[in-house]
Amino acid sequence: MLLDMEQHSTLGSLSMSHFSLPSTGGSGDDAAAGGGGGGGNSPLYGSPPLYSITASAAPQHSPGISYGYNLEACFFSPSGTGGGLEQVPGFQPILQQGSELPDTKEGIEELCPVCGDKVSGYHYGLLTCESCKGFFKRTVQNKKVYTCVAERSCHIDKTQRKRCPFCRFQKCLDVGMKLEAVRADRMRGGRNKFGPMYKRDRARKLQMIRQRQMAIQTLRNSSGYTSGNGGSGDAVTLSYTSPGSNFGALQIKQEIQIPQVSSLTSSPDSSPSPIAVALGQQQQQQQTSMYSAVLPAQQLQIPEQRVTQQVFEQSKLWPTNSPPPQKSFSYEGPSSGNSQGKVSPMIRDFVLAIDDQEWQNSLYNLLQNQTYNQCEVDLFELMCKVLDQNLFSQVDWARNSTFFKDLKVDDQMKLLQHSWSDMLVLDHMHHRMHNNLPDEATLPNGQKFDLLSLGLLGVPSLAEPFTEISTRLQDLKFDPSDYISIKFLLLLNPDVRGLMNRKHVQEGHDQVQQALHDYCLTSYPQVQDKFNKLLTILPEIHSIAVRGEEHLYMKHCNGGAPTQTLLMEMLHAKRK
DNA sequence: ATAGCCTTGATC
DNA sequence: GATCAAGGCTAT
Q: Is the CB of A190 less than 7 A from some atom of nucleic acid strand B?
């Protein structure tokens, strides 16, 4: 009844890898129509394959699109209208002048996650435009095979979507269009099993819009927020997808500066506002190690008794389908076993500052908190929250790091905004390779959480380049000293535009690079050209990070990602 | 081949 | 009967 990939020889030129989506299992509520490839409304694919691609070139945004988000303007202009969020793709004003609530259909103006065109409805699993719907249908129905003449990482937008069908179809799959929603028997009309999902999604989006509206009202009322039109009540309201962006940008700066308490009230969203989290971070930092600062949910939302209980119970919960992390999830200190020569004091100190156990505890605590008492959580949203937490610990790590801590806040921000995603990808490689981080964990509510997706920034098809790089690192005997040195190299990037103290960044970068060079020579003389080979991997990590960022940004623009997070601030900051 | 519009039909 | 997400048709 299922026409699987093997039968689709024409699509066979695209490589397959494991990818588990909920199995469709055939008809369900789909009525049988007989004949053809199987039952009525039966899926064309029962077990959706993943078309893996290798990313290399960084996707570029269309030069014709104006990214008006101005971080500096946000800092110095409380009104924030100079930031021009209205100009950012995906940011549609949900309220027209004079209107109050986004109840009407016109209020939900979304953009196609594939090409950015106007959405015409739910098609094959999610909201897309009419053209991408048709494109997806034609591709699957006619078993089309495309090839990319470039690097399989072409940028897809409304004006360029026709240029590379390979990358367009790849993006369709990346954003979650479902092969199994294309009917093998071509039966018209009716509904499929995704109906309830669409309904839930609609309700969730509507709820988010309302919450965002309330948040904006609250912020306006409580912090003297005035709109660019003078706050007279008839202003065009900023998008529901990021109502707190201007404040959040400020928050990044405060975060680095060891902020004072903000008077902002808490967000109506279930997750704490970045400012609140940063506040909690400072309180916590006084008494514990730097990584333990990142437990926003525990500090802000969970009664103390429950936190204690959770920490106590943590060890018996994780993960059920992999070796107990408590024992396997730590490495034996710097350069154990391998180092024959003298390790530079700098690298030694770098490694000593790593606290992977805390990273792990934070990760599992957050996963546990977020699923506490819930039968089902949105796994993408959960992933965003974990990434957000990782970002906080990253900021905290950087803030306490040599070279970086000597810089002015503006330079610190620029460096972080440029390197955060690269470092997240690298971090994940490190935790998988050196701490036995499993690719999947079973949450307390029974759901399976794809830990690997954290390293892929949510893009399943990046698994192939990710593991390929990991394998090469393994061959190079990549160790924690290499990891932390490379992380410094990513952070201390003297090529970042607009640095005031480029000289200091350059010096730090060069010193780390020299130390890593010496370390490779003295500790791994048997690995041919290890240092240079390590450096060649940096742009490849960057390529993964860029694609991940684009994916997250698109999800965010469509309201599919939590707002008021450091993660989203970072995504916006780079697009200014 | 693309994409806008049309037709269909199960579900509400 | 209204809705809306499937597939179909057709001008470009």
A: yes
